[in-house]
Amino acid sequence: MDISTVGGLVLALVALAVSLVLEGGNFAQLINISAFVLIVGGTFGATLISFPMEEVMALPKLLGKAFGNKDDDPTKVIDQIVTLVEKARREGLLTLQNEVKNLDDEFLIRGIELVVDGTDPQAVRSILETDIAFMEKRHRAGSGVLETAGGYSPTMGIIGTVMGLVNVLSHLNEGTEKLGEAIANAFLATFYGIFFANVFFLPLGGKLKAKSASEMLRRELILEGVLSLQAGESPRIVREKLEVFLPPKYKTKAKEGGGE
């Protein structure tokens, strides 16, 4: 599980709770079922209008990536590719068929299978680049759904507050004893809208973008590694070529392990 995602959500909720207590409030004051129904239902309804059904239905799977903690250490991928390059130079490309079952990255497996099948290098590049492009498109759609929901949510909150105030003002002739409480309840809709947008929808959309960027970098690294393997380049050249993709923290790690 991704600690930053879960920890961030917990921290935001704890900060809300502590702030409420310090202000002398209680959690019962934040409960308004009608406002909650309007914000959740209205936001997802508007979002459904904005996107095709299949993109919205794919969101739960993408959210799993936001909360998941996949090992994205690119140095491990480089080590795998360099090992495959060494084996291919010693024993030939066809021997890599036996190595595929030991790999856990589907994109790398696909690339190796294309090379073993004798696919033209330009075709290998084209196929893998298309795969990367469509993956990025799927991820962009997922983050777009969340960001769109984050845009609609505060607006739905304002709509809910206006509806609540209209209801309050329409009953003014019945007395003003509970006027303050009614107005406070009306503003809960705005609170819900802003809260969901800035604690859930927009941050999770941002996390999906960050995860997508990391996965794209990983796949571009694999693409270059597969093409280098197919071209018969030396393991040292392949490692140096792929380490160009590494962020600074991983370059230091790769340098430390380079002599092993």
Supply the key terms.
elongated
Structure description:
- With 260 residues, this protein is mainly alpha-helical.
- The protein has one domain.
- It is 78% helix and 0% strand.
- It has ten helices and no strands.
- Helix 2 packs parallel to helix 8 and helix 7 runs antiparallel to helix 8.
- The radius of gyration is 26 Å and the shape is elongated.
- The model has no long low-confidence stretch (mean pLDDT 87).
For the record, give the distance between the C-alpha atoms at the N and C termini, rounded to a whole number.
31 Å
Q: In terms of structural class, how would the helical and strand content be classed?
A: mainly alpha
Order of helices and strands: HHHHHHHHHH
Q: What would the average pLDDT be, to the nearest integer?
A: 87
Q: Describe the main β-sheet briefly.
A: none
Fraction of residues in helix: over 70%
- Computed Rg: 26 Å
- How many helical elements? 10
Q: How much strand?
A: under 5%
How many individual domains?
Answer: 1
Report the strand count.
Answer: 0
Overall geometry comes to elongated
- Low-confidence blocks of residues: none
